[in-house]
Amino acid sequence: MKQIEFTDGNFEEVVLKSDIPVIIDFWAAWCAPCRMIAPIIEDLANEFEGKAKVGKLDVDSNQDTAIKYGVRSIPTVLIIKNGEVVDTIIGALPKASFVQKLTAIL
User: What is the mean pLDDT of residues 91-100?
Assistant: First the structure.
């Protein structure tokens, strides 16, 4: 499964109304740590296919959603389940950290 491109326009439909957990990587093209975790996010999209939706939200072009969720530093990864934020990961952490947090809420 390829990762999903989340936007201000599709956020409610794709994320908040999802029947499975959603992992959102808040990122920007100019952010070096964001580029460091990009392959991890891609791996998660493949490993958790069918169990979770995984994707990215560009904070520069989707500022409304970033502001709504209080994203002040990137990368910030939110895990949303049943429309509620259940976990937040800030910064470039190793893949195992992401897998552990995701597995805990599935």
Answer: 95
